[in-house]
Amino acid sequence: MKHHIVHVPEDAKGKRLDVWLATRPELGLSRSWAQKLVEAGSVAVDGRSTKSAYRLKGGEAITVDIPEPQLPELIPQEIEIPVVYEDDQIIVVNKPRGMVVHPAAGNYTGTLVNALLARIPTMRDLSPINGVLRPGIVHRLDKDTTGLMVVAKTAAAMSWLSAEIKARRVNKVYLAIVIGNPPPEGTVDAPIGRHKIYRKKMTVTETGKPAVTRYKVLEQFANYALVELKLDTGRTHQIRVHMSYIGHPVAGDPVYSKKAAAVCRELGLKGQALHAYTLGFLHPVTRQYVEFKAPLPPDMAHALELLRSGA
């Protein structure tokens, strides 16, 4: 059970309790979850239980008790995944579009972790290192982002890779098709945090964490561009948020582009055109630099063919 005490500022006067709770980043609640906690008596305003529709007066002290989630058992599943490289320490995969990396609310099966556990049962022993539902996972890709990921098979490899990523010594290069005509190259230095209203979205905000994305245009077309991107940081949705922020969202991104559906039809995309193309790092045992590349997914490659042909 996590116990929180939050104080209501004067400028929140008149807001509904559940709506305001869902805007507090330290709580991480959706509005529906906030309502359930209020109904369960886990929320108190100045020491008294109340209703979700309670209108704040400003200055109250609100206590929120959030129960620890009951985690499901990890289930190994025979799911085919493209393996780029594997040894007794690591496995490098080319994650397909539509696959979630690890189990979470709404996606407890069919994930990369489920697939890897069927292939490498001993990975389950890594659970306590990085969360029980993320054995071996040292970095992630969004569900509809394709491309390279390295996953640890041993505790030593997991510790080494986590430290290298934290120190920003892992080389990650992405390719994306973006909308419009961005400058030939540039750096987006803008902090990213969770959206105050739409909690599943991230946004550029002064209260966010530092985030830096560097990009270079590789090919320019009439209304689109193929860009190469490198990250100095690794925030959630970073490339998608930053490119949208500068007015050139990733093509086919339904979250950060209002044109997503139309672009998917026009280019034949099945989702956002973002691909983790290159991954390089020092091997956890040999300490030698290794680098891997993954070809573009078929729909993204086809979209480029259309653009190059002028179709």
Overall mean pLDDT: 93
Distance between the termini: 57 Å
Radius of gyration: 22 Å
Number of strands: 15
Query: What portion of residues is helical?
Result: 10-25%
Number of helices: 8
- Give the amount of beta strand, in percent: 25-35%
The topology string of helices and strands comes to: EHHEEEEEHHEHEEEEEEHHEEH
Based on helices, strands and strand pairing, what is the structural class?
alpha+beta
Overall 3D shape: globular
The largest sheet is: 9 strands, mixed
Low-pLDDT regions: none
Q: What report would you give on this structure?
A:
With 311 residues, this protein is α+β, with helices and mostly antiparallel strands. Helices cover 21% and strands 27% of the residues. It is built from eight helices and 15 strands. The strands form three sheets. Strands 5, 6, 7, 8, 9, 12, 13, 14 and 15 form a nine-stranded mixed sheet that branches. The protein has a four-stranded antiparallel sheet with strand order 1-4-2-3. The chain has a two-stranded antiparallel ribbon with strand order 10-11. A hairpin with a 3-residue loop joins strand 5 and strand 6 (90-95). The longest helix has 12 residues, at 155-166. The radius of gyration is 22 Å and the shape is globular. The mean pLDDT is 93.
